[in-house]
Amino acid sequence: MAVRTRFAPSPTGYMHIGGMRTALFNWLWARRNRGTFILRIDDTDQQRNMDEALGPILQAFRWLGLDWDEGPDRPGPNGPCFQSQRRHLYDAALQRLLADGHAYRDFEPAAETQRQREEAEQQKRVYVSSRQSLLLTAEQIQQQLAAGQPCVIRLKVPREDRVVIDDHVRGRVEWDCSLMPDPVIARSDGSPLYNFATVVDDAAMEITHVIRAEEHLSNTPIQVLLHRALGNNTPEWAHIPYVAAPGSKEKISKRKIAQYRKNPQFQKLFELGDAVLGRLGVDAAADALSPVMVAYSQQVGFIPAGVLNALVRIGWSYDDQTEILSLEEMITKFSLERVIRSPAGLDPDKLISFQSHWMHQLSVDEKLEGCLQWLQRAGLIADAADPEVRQYVAKVIDLAGDRLRVYGDIFSVDEFFVADDAVQMDQKNFEKRVLNATGAVELLRQVQQLLVGLPEYSAGPLHDALQGILQQRGLKPGDLFPALRLCISGRVQGADLFRTLELLGREKVDRRLSGTLSRIPGTT
RNA sequence: GGCCCCAUCGUCUAGUUAGGUCCAGGACAUCGGAUUUUCAUUCCGGUAACAGGGGUUCAAAUCCCCUUGGGGUCACCA
Questions:
Q1: What is the 3-state secondary structure (H, E, C) of A300-329?
Q2: Beta bridge partners of A79
Q3: What ipTM score was computed for the predicted complex, to two decimals?
Q4: A41 touches strand B (CB under 7 A)
């Protein structure tokens, strides 16, 4: 039978990193089996603006290159992919269940049910539904209905049964039905609940493998029972571990961002993110964007290959060696059997490491397209289409080399883009290397003179000339290079100094040197 | 609390189904060293783990039991 998997997010307005990992596993399983991947929208409880809430989710899929065979924009042979548009199916199934006696109308007031629940808990007794409404005769039920008495519809759990599944990752898991309350499958307004709609749709869409996070494991017996009651074939199950917060076993959550900021393991990612997002005018401290969301990595300038590689290795491995995998390799190598059982924490450091690896694989042209976008959004370049700008940026990228891990890292060499008087000076090092270093200022003046008159302003000659001064004066590289770099870029560290000088060019270097040196008090 | 799940270096994991080749392998992080004008990269090297206790066995990270710990879930949310 052809494999059909689905990922069914509810439109929340953002794509969660953990959900993305679940989606990836579903997608991978479908692709590796030449099956079908379905994107279904679980919007049974949503009143908000669909476009707005769904947009970011589809956007995340498109960005990462996970395509769907059936989805919001392309209904499958089994109907639309919005649950809100499949109501007739749920209604029909409900009628069937009611007629068969697998489900019943429960007129018990919610407060009363709640009371019983609490009472059972107090008495340390397992709570199961009272089923008082089952005592009603058909006439009584009609009367209640006619009187407008509200009721929910519950599945009548066969209490003498057991549910046993053979989960692809967890193995055999079983439940005793005598311990289960009758789950509500339709609200008093007749609308279906998640567990019910899911089962109806999974069956209608002929889903063969339900691959979802472990937190759904407790929903499984209910869904199995529902499938049985409906006479469906039960899909195969694979409950993958949820994605935990770095260094913990707790499910990673959007609400705990403030906590994560204090987490040393999250340090680097936040530093990277803050630096980039700050430049883009995005308030990273606000709730709107956080590392828990897929959009965060995109905004910071991660590339799909890096994110995908990090995601696939959370809770899954191919063997004891393979770390680097392209999407294509994942497709051929992925298997449910090698999904790990215990929760796995997202490792921000490893994310960055995978990202660096894949970024380094990109050609200068590919990096160029990305960096141009970031530079433009930060207002550091005026026109990304301008051939001269493009050529210049390409050179900067080449010079930056491995320092460019994410597109946003282009901001770490912003000395190539800001105005001469807008260079941010590392004041502390400036004092140490220039102001308080004996003879530094005088040396820099001599260097400035030398550079202005240098016949050929390129890395080689620049190197030779500067080395020449050092030799002449019996100085070490450390006496000049950091100081010079500071004057022209504001930083003590960076890419090759001579190539930096060359790229910046004679005029800029001279202006920056003049500007910096003129601000030094007590000198003329 | 009930039900269910999980437990190997700081982290992600290999090894557990078929016990021996594992005084436990890889990757990231970290620490040292080499290269380099600095940083980054690259290359070498180091530190570092089978939660605890009982069994079974000639032999257990691997099988069984118990304990402990962690987590998920218990809605007219998804």
A1: HCCCHHHHHHHHHCCCECCCCCCCCCCHHH
A2: A76
A3: 0.95
A4: no
At A138-178, the pLDDT tens digits run 999 999 999 999 999 999 999 999 999 999 999 989 999 99
CA–CA distances in Å: residue A297 to residues A19, A136, A276, A319, A352: 15, 57, 11, 27, 10
A271 Cβ nearer than 7 Å to chain B strand: no
Q: Collapsing DSSP states into helix, strand and coil, what is residue A497?
A: helix
Q: How many CB atoms lie within 10 A of CB A195?
A: 19
Task: Give the count of beta carbons closer than 10 Å to the beta carbon of residue A229.
Answer: 21
Q: CB of A320 under 7 A from strand B?
A: yes
Q: How far apart are CA A131 and CA A154, in angstroms?
A: 10
Query: DSSP for A412-455?
Result: GGGGGTS-GGGPPP-HHHHIIIIITSTTHHHHHHHHHHHHHT-S
Strands A184-186, A152-155: pairing kind? antiparallel
**A278, exposed or middle or buried, with CB in 10 Å at 0-12, 13-18, 19+?**
middle
Dist. CA A518–CA A520, nearest whole Å:
5
Please check the confidence at residue A49 and state whether its pLDDT lies above 70: no
Per DSSP, A244 falls in state E
End-to-end C-alpha distance for chain A, whole angstroms: 85
Q: Do residues A411 and A372 touch, judged by C-beta distance below 8 A?
A: no
Q: Which nucleotides of B are covered by protein (CB under 7 A)?
A: 1-8, 10-15, 25-29, 37-42, 70-78
Q: In the numeric block, which tokens belong to residue A379?
A: 């207002």
What is the overall mean pLDDT for chain A? Answer: 93
Residue whose CA lies closest to nucleotide B25 C1' = A320
Q: What is the rounded average pLDDT of the residues A37-41?
A: 97
CB A502 within 8 Å of CB A457: yes
What angle (nearest 5°) sits at the alpha carbon of residue A8, between those of residues A89 and A250? 135
Closest nucleotide relative to residue A248's CA, C1' based:
B70
Of residues A180, A191, A189, A126, the one with CA closest to residue A156: A180
What DSSP state is assigned to residue A83?
G
Mean pLDDT of A101-109: 96
- Measured from the CB, is A170 under 7 Å from any atom of strand B? yes
Strand B within 7 Å of which CB atoms in A 385-414?
A: 401-403
The dihedral through the CA atoms of A18, A22, A28, A34 has a sign that is: negative
Instruction: Please give the Cα distance from A333 to A325 (Å, whole number).
Output: 9
